[in-house]
Amino acid sequence: MDSVRVAAAQIRHPLLAPIVIDGRGGYTPNEIAAMVVIVSPELRALRDQRGVAEAQVVQAGVLPNPQLGYSVDRPHGAYNPAVVAGRNLGLSWEVASLLTRHDQVASARAGAKAVDLSVAWEEWQTAQDARLRAFRILSIERRLPLARSIEESLADTLALTKKAVALGLKTTADLTTAAEVWSQAQNARFDLERQLTSERATLNLGLGMAAPDKVPLKYAAPDSFWAEGPAPTADDLLQGLEERRLDLIALRCGYESAEASLRAAVIAQFPKIGLSVNKANDTTPVYTRGIGVTVDLPILDRNQGQIAIGQATRLQLFDEYVARVAEARSQVVQVLANLGIARAQLATAEASLPELAGLVSSYKTALASHNADELAYRDARAALATRQMEQCLLLQQVIELRVALEIATGRPSIERNPSPGSL
Predict the structure, then answer these.
(1) Domain that holds residue 92
(2) Phi and psi torsions of 63, nearest 5°
(3) pLDDT digit string (tens) for 244-275?
(4) How far apart are CA 179 and CA 149, in angstroms?
(5) How confident is the model over 50-97, as pLDDT tens digits?
(6) Does 77 reside within a domain?
(7) Which tens digits make up the pLDDT trace of 118-173?
(8) How many CA atoms lie within 13 A of 217 on its CB side?
(9) CB under 8 Å, gap of 24 or more: what pairs does 97-101 form?
(10) For 219, 242, 311, 409, which has the most beta carbons within 10 A of its beta carbon?
């Protein structure tokens, strides 16, 4: 953890800011997000792509080696006059590679930049996913006691209904209804427990921990749902979208790489030219020096295959970029609309809580003075716990929509963390 804390405080990322991991009393969702980015085994393997891209940049700038040739012909047998050994020394180099070197290097650099941005985008998405899972775990841990309380209350109601049926005060239909409601509450509790186990196992996998381990979690400091000022509109969030989303910038870099590769392929149509110098002598003591030029005849291979591949790749990246931009804009509008609905539902649920709490208090007072039915009191408590669970679930939906909006816009921390008392 010491090394993780140091890395989190020194993290360099376009969207993730350095964070001081405290750890006392548990980890906040933002701290969990930074920890997952640092220690995730999947992200470590993904970051290895950067080394491959950097090696490709180096390789793109390497020119072909010159060729050195030497041969000797030794005469044998009797010959008059005397002869000497024939020798040939030559040095040659293919110079046409100079024509495409600039574009090949530019293509490799743009490709490396695209890889860096793609990795950064995946890191941010992984961080947001871990952050969401932390919020889900906290929400489920808050809802689970309420679900158990509802289940226990309905179990008591079922027991009282059985007694009432035995006394002839309730019908069998009432007993069947009470049993069905209790069974539904029990299944809801089981479902929450399964969700909690699944979310913890997935979070532990991202942290490189064993599945049974439990990471202590806590909420961040209380804050409002939105930053200071009015909520952003769709036009505000869509403005500059293409310059904020790292995946869109990565696609543009990929397009630039494909464009440079296509230029290199077109230039490579120029015939290959080789220059050579040589020094030779035949079996008679006659020495020569010369230069040579070799030129490919572009009759069969005119690099048409590489040009076609480059054109198709460039068109594919362009169409993918246009589709991704349209999808991102649609996501922003849709998520923002859903967020407004969820916030309105949450406000309605929160407004009804005081009334239900007052009803429970009234029933409790009346029950103490034997002026109320115990079943009515238990039903009121169950209704209050159900509405509190609904509030927690709606708040979790708001949080997930907020994170989805951050991902869709490429703008981190559109909204701040929720207050601990709200979950």
Answers:
(1) 2-71+83-422
(2) -90, 155
(3) 899 999 999 999 999 999 999 998 888 888 88
(4) 16
(5) 888 999 999 988 888 888 988 888 877 666 676 778 888 889 888 888
(6) no
(7) 999 999 999 999 989 999 999 999 999 999 988 888 888 888 888 888 888 788 88
(8) 27
(9) 97/63, 97/64, 98/63, 99/267, 99/268, 99/270, 100/264, 100/267, 100/268, 101/60, 101/61, 101/63
(10) 409
Reported as type and span, the H/E element at residue 182 is helix 172-207
Q: At residue 224, does pLDDT exceed 70?
A: no
Residue closest to 423 by CA, chosen among 388, 382, 372, 374: 388
In a domain, 300, yes or no: yes
User: Whole-prediction pTM value?
Assistant: 0.79
Residue 391's contacts (CB-CB under 8 Å, 6 or more residues apart) are 346, 349, 350, 353
Say if 78 falls within a structural domain: no
The tokens of 4 are what? 């993780």
- Which CATH number do you get for residue 45? 1.20.1600.10
Q: Which residue has the tokens 């019908």?
A: 171
Domain total of the chain: 1
Tokens of 238: 């869509």
Side-chain-side CA neighbours of 158 within 13 Å: the count stands at 17
R_g (Cα) of the chain, nearest Å: 36
Rounded-to-integer distance, Cα 236 and Cα 75, Å: 88
